[in-house]
Design a protein that fits this description.
With about 290 residues, the chain is α+β, with helices and mostly antiparallel strands. The chain is built from 6 helices and 16 strands. The protein folds into 2 domains: about 120 residues, 2,3-Dihydroxybiphenyl 1,2-Dioxygenase, domain 1; about 140 residues, 2,3-Dihydroxybiphenyl 1,2-Dioxygenase, domain 1, CATH 3.10.180.10.
């Protein structure tokens, strides 16, 4: 029997990074998260694509930079869609840009690279044989996809038009909610809503598909962008290990509502957050927000 899909249209489903030296990135992330990699490209292909796995399940990927791509590495967010071409048209109609037109990726799926009106780039994924990440919300797996922007109202209008997302005020931050996602999760895992309520999660947290934060005015050089948060068992240990492997700890481990987290840049410049679920921090900062993923 085929495993039911983890995703519905409008839900982030995959993440990858394309550094200048993918082989070096494989060493870094393998040492950091315990990822095991498989290069899924043919031996004679000009580019490499290393799929990272945890206990045999796909978690993320490290690939080669395409010719002409921006030289700085970054983690990319992919959003599951029914029709990549139709979504690209919605992006344009909502004031965004299509940076790379929809194209086939073998039998894996069909993708396009887009940017919102503020310039934050993301990918849309029309699934073929590749059905997104198998492992999420576990140590070394994606926990959240995070939009950082200066234009909150513009982001609401754009992502609402393209994906049907709504914003939830989480107290000190925001989250993107997709109406109906909680129903999907409850059908897939009965008891999801009850478990969240028992934990004390904010109302409608079962509908959350991503997070949203406003870039502070005292950081004028930070552009709008999508980022990635990985779940970890110990944020302090991950920060120390990242430094040992040649990464830079941009923000030392700190406590935040529901979590303890750290921000790290890998040796080739891709920045990510590592977040440990810490329910004892629920009230840190007098916030009702949560960051535990669903």
């Amino acid at each position: 029997m085929t495993e039911p899909d983890r995703y519905i249209p409008g839900v982030p489903c995959w993440a990858d990074t394309t550094p200048a030296d993918p082989e070096a990135a494989v060493v870094f992330y393998g040492g950091l998260f315990g990822w095991e990699f498989e290069d899924v490209m043919p031996a004679d292909a000009p580019l490499r694509y290393f799929v990272a796995r945890l206990r045999g399940g796909d978690a993320a990927a490290v690939g080669s930079q395409a010719p002409g791509a921006p030289p700085q590495a970054a983690w990319r967010t992919y959003v599951w869609v029914t029709d990549a071409d139709e979504t690209a048209a919605k992006v344009r109609a909502a004031g965004g840009r299509v940076l790379s037109e929809p194209r086939e990726v073998g039998d894996q799926g069909r993708m396009a690279v887009c940017a919102d009106p503020a310039g934050a780039a993301f990918c849309v994924w029309q699934a073929g044989t590749h059905r997104g990440a198998d492992v999420i919300n576990e140590h070394g797996a994606v926990n959240f996809n995070d939009l950082h922007t200066r234009d909150l109202d513009g982001a609401r209008a754009f992502y609402g038009a393209v994906f049907g997302w709504e914003t939830l005020d989480m107290g000190g931050g925001y989250a993107w909610a997709l109406p109906g996602y909680g129903d999907f999760l409850e059908e897939r895992r009965p008891g999801t809503r009850a478990g969240m309520a028992e934990m004390g999660a904010p109302e409608r947290f079962e509908d959350v598909v991503a997070t949203l934060s406003v870039i502070p005015e005292d950081q004028p050089g930070v552009p709008a962008h999508w980022g990635i948060t990985f779940a970890v068992d110990d944020a302090d240990a991950i920060a120390a290990r990242a430094a040992e492997l040649g990464g830079q700890v941009v923000v030392a481990p700190f406590d935040a509502p529901w979590v303890r987290m750290t921000i790290v840049t890998d040796p080739q410049g891709a920045t990510f957050t590592a977040s440990m679920f810490a329910p004892q921090n629920k009230s840190v900062g007098q916030s009702s927000g949560a960051a535990t993923g669903v």
